[in-house]
Amino acid sequence: MEQRAWIATRKGLFEMHRSRGAWDIARVHFLGEPVSMVLPPGPGSSPGRMLAALSLGHFGAKLQASDDAGASWHELPAPAYPPQPEGAPVAGVEWKLRQVWSLEAAHGSIWAGTLPGGLFRSNDGAESWQLVEPLWNQPGRAEWFGGGYDVPGIHSICPHPTRAGELLVGISCGGAWMTCDDAASWQLRADGMHAAYMPPGQAENPNTQDPHRIVRCAAQPDVLWCQHHNGIWRSTDNAVSWHEITNVPLANFGFAVVVHPAHADTAWFAPGVADQQRVPVDGALVVNRTRDGGKSFETLRTGLPHQDCYDLIYRHGLAVDDTGHRLLMGSTTGGLWASDDGGDRWTTVAAHLPPIYAVRMG
Amino acid sequence: MACMARIVFTQQLRRFTETPEVNAPVATLRAALDAAFALNPRLRGYVLDEQGHMRANVVAFIDGRRCTDRIRLDDALAPDSQVHVLQALSGG
Hints:
Chain A is mainly beta. Helices cover 1% and strands 40% of the residues of chain A.
């Protein structure tokens, strides 16, 4: 096996192996169960541990762990909200875990972003979790609202690769929030974004932005990219300010974005027509790539479906490996494509998987 | 021997955790559930959420009648009640 990837889907977790230049399904875990997110094995407080977040239709969100790369699994306690106080100030949002939407490990901690908007932290390899109360209790949470779900959710967790204690999260819909003191205090970091779906006078409110996905460049961590509900934004100053990228070909709507791990000016997007029509433009699946920080884009379509295609790439459906050359892209209608050359050419890996929620290398 | 309420869980749960069949002298639905959770604490999180409410897509029947309160879970049980905890079809 040259490389491994994990595909979290509506009906199981698919383990992909790449050998002799091609990706194949090696194993299927939790067949039939919705897997909302996966954290591949890696360094952290429990080296080699991987996590799979299940979102059981009847029995709630669960967490499974494996210490042998998926050969065996055992259940761990899922993040749980503390008792909801009587008359809790935010109406309509119950203190109940709906779904684990994001998982990241960094500097000895594992972070879980959830619906309805709570960030959880584990310092013992996911054996136990604590709600990050300074973010949950900040008054601005009252303005957050659901984007694609009934309740707000944290879909993006961007730890700083070298500065432990510094973390940015993206919230649909609650903007982007940064901590620089190990989650003790949080600041809104969505200045420059605007929301076309808000009423007059509210479009610039950073606290109601809908960043569909935010990613950070590993080698140049001050650079962040955001695929927003109504456009693409980039920050080069660690999210102090965001600048809209306006010359995006075909469409600036979409969910997914990935950034090259070494070259912050290179990022990939998977556009859809618009929020009211979430399908590829003209029925042809494409990837938009910039290699100059958004000054220009190439629309890449070689090997992708050219007609009658209605696949949508959701927030976590696009992944790039550590080299920046190999990409995987999975759709909400179960298509999976791979590229070995930074997106220039694509091959179909699978056409009939369940709806794909997340694609991760590792 | 005194009559005891009996509580049975859907077999669907068995792929995730053990589902003990419980016979217990309990007077409410919550007490019956607690008796089962005492035997398998992990079962609690599958039936109730972290606020102690019945999950939206779980349903309990008491002697063939759907339970009326999903928060307090204080529906009364008769000494020989039969409680069935099932998945609600609303959950998919």
